[in-house]
Specification:
Order of helices and strands: EHEHHHEHEHEEEHHEH
Number of strands: 8
Helix content: 40-55%
Strand content: 15-25%
Oligomer: single chain
Shape: globular
Radius of gyration: 19 Å
């Protein structure tokens, strides 16, 4: 097993991206996201990448078997020798079972699953409060990073708007999908004794301190 073979779980708005960047920086492991992997596999024209491309060009979801093949290929590259951080995968129990089998086939296993837990209403407030400048794309938040003038960008004076996928109805739907499909993974990995639950209702620094304590010191 790689020393830091990690998976990060958490609902939309939990701050996974920020914390994943911290882990990658401190522990020297690659941040592996399925979106990046699919794009790389297609670009490099690997057999699995060409298979994925057929589905993507048809507008279909890439099946689990192909995604698992791409993950397995990626986890055998030299930069994963110290470990890896998987983000955005697995999303379902069947994906987790297939990942376990694939890792076992290359003599590895999931070492730790970091589950960032955040109250649902707090997530709704985080996600629906985001605003973006139409002109320069600067990000703001009505609660955490408000502009000096409502709906006006501090940087360029452009109009601030709410992205369609940040509307309350869309946010609640995304959270519902997460609860139904991905949250059961916490129980799945609990049975393997590898889950570290982290309170995401804190400052990012405190959240990361909990994550570091759960993972252990970098080599």
């Amino acid at each position: 097993m790689g020393q830091f073979d990690l998976i990060m779980l958490g609902p939309p708005g939990a701050g996974k991206g920020t914390q994943a960047a911290n882990v990658v920086s401190d522990y020297g492991v690659p941040h592996i996201s399925t979106g990046d992997m699919l794009r790389d596999a297609v670009k490099n024209q690997t057999p699995m990448g060409m298979e994925a491309k057929r589905y993507m060009e048809a507008g279909d979801l890439v099946p689990d078997s192909v995604v698992i093949g791409i993950v397995k290929d990626r986890l055998q590259q030299p930069d994963t020798a110290k470990g890896f951080l998987l983000d955005g995968f697995p999303r379902t129990i069947p994906q987790a079972e297939a990942l376990d089998a694939a890792l076992g086939g290359i003599g590895r296993s999931v070492g730790k699953v970091v589950a960032i837990l955040v109250d649902e209403e707090a997530l709704v407030a985080r996600l629906t409060g985001r605003r973006i400048c139409r002109t320069c794309q600067a990000p703001f938040h009505v609660s955490f990073n408000p502009p000096k003038t409502v709906d006006v960008c501090d940087r360029c004076g452009g109009e601030l708007y709410q992205r369609a996928d940040d509307s309350e109805a869309t946010v609640r739907n995304r959270l519902e999908v997460y609860r139904a499909q991905t949250e059961p993974l916490i129980e799945y990995y609990d049975k393997q004794g590898v889950v570290a639950r982290v309170d995401g209702d804190q400052s990012p620094d405190k959240v990361y301190a909990e994550i570091k304590a759960a993972i252990g010191p970098a080599a």
